[in-house]
Design goal:
The protein is of the alpha+beta class. The chain is built from two helices and five strands, in the order αβββββα. Strands 1, 2, 3, 4 and 5 form a five-stranded antiparallel sheet that branches. It is elongated, with a radius of gyration of 32 Å.
Length: 167
């Protein structure tokens, strides 16, 4: 019974995982479209030298520097941006901004959307399979321990008679 319930649970989790993965993919597509419309890549000119670099989330070395840029609405902006350590004052770096020219993160791309959907879509069934496999294993161990105790109890009754008969 436990094995059957585990198999049915994994199948249900697989269906649920696929549904959640499809939902996550749809949400990701909407986020992509929204961010592609609201974020713009602009050229920023460095007005200062890049500070001591540190590793970014992506693993590349980045530093900070003062820069100026023109927002999509035409206004001039200035501020601190992230820049590669090899850049110097006067060079151009591409940054992402929102409609008002405020620095924004890079818009979500299709790769990020697909990875998020696959992670959700496979994570749910794999997690459920692991939990259900643990349940089946624990149930088996309990049943085997109980069977050994019953066998031992029955053997203690039979063993004295078996030795008397000379076997």
């Amino acid at each position: 019974m436990i094995r059957l319930a585990a198999v049915l649970g994994v199948v249900a989790a697989l269906v649920f995982g696929v549904m959640l993965g499809m939902r996550e993919y749809g949400d990701g597509l909407r986020t992509e479209a929204q961010q592609a419309h609201a974020r713009h890549q602009v050229a920023a000119t460095l007005t200062g030298e890049v500070t001591t670099p540190r590793l970014s989330v992506a693993g590349a070395a980045v530093g900070h520097a003062q820069a100026i840029w023109v927002a999509p609405d035409g206004t001039a902006r200035a501020g601190v941006i992230e820049a590669p350590p090899s850049r110097h004052a006067g060079e151009t770096v591409h940054i992402w901004t929102d409609d008002a020219g405020v620095i924004a993160p890079r818009p979500q791309d299709r790769e990020t959307t697909v990875v998020a959907a696959l992670t959700v879509g496979t994570g749910v069934p794999l997690g459920a399979a692991a939990i259900l496999a643990l349940l089946v294993t624990c149930t088996r161990l309990v049943n085997q321990r109980r069977a050994r105790r019953v066998w031992e109890a029955q053997w203690t009754v039979v063993e004295p008679m078996w030795r008397i008969n000379g076997r």
